[in-house]
Amino acid sequence: MNSLVYQINDILHAFHQLSPKVNDEIHTDGGMIKNKYLMQYLSNITQKNVKIANISELSALGSAMNAMHHFDGMQYSKTYTPRINKNTAKDYCNEWTTWIKKLA
């Protein structure tokens, strides 16, 4: 499960290289938002706030919103903030990268 967090972190770094103005928050939906450990770990490793959508399946909501002419805005049920420092997060990410290189 932790590997998903590191993969998301890798993608965020790639996005940041393409566009340095990438949002500093992560907005989430889907079944995994119910996993509090995963959401907190995502916040810790990325060092970003992770906002949990009130509606777990936003794909269906997105389709409905496309049919609407206006929408009042997204609401969130919870926000996770980093609980480890940047250096610890960086150490974890370096360990992840080392293992990926060993397995490649």
TrEMBL record:
Q: Name one GO cellular component term.
A: cytosol
Q: State a single Pfam family of this protein.
A: FGGY_C
Domain of life of the native organism: Bacteria
Q: Domain Carbohydrate kinase FGGY C-terminal, which positions?
A: 2-69
Annotated GO MF terms: ATP binding; glycerol kinase activity
Transmembrane stretches, start-end: none
- Please verify whether the record's keywords include rRNA-binding: no
Q: Which GO terms describe its biological process?
A: glycerol catabolic process
Q: What are the record keywords, sorted?
A: ATP-binding, Kinase, Nucleotide-binding, Transferase
Its family remark reads: Belongs to the FGGY kinase family.
The protein's name is: Carbohydrate kinase FGGY C-terminal domain-containing protein
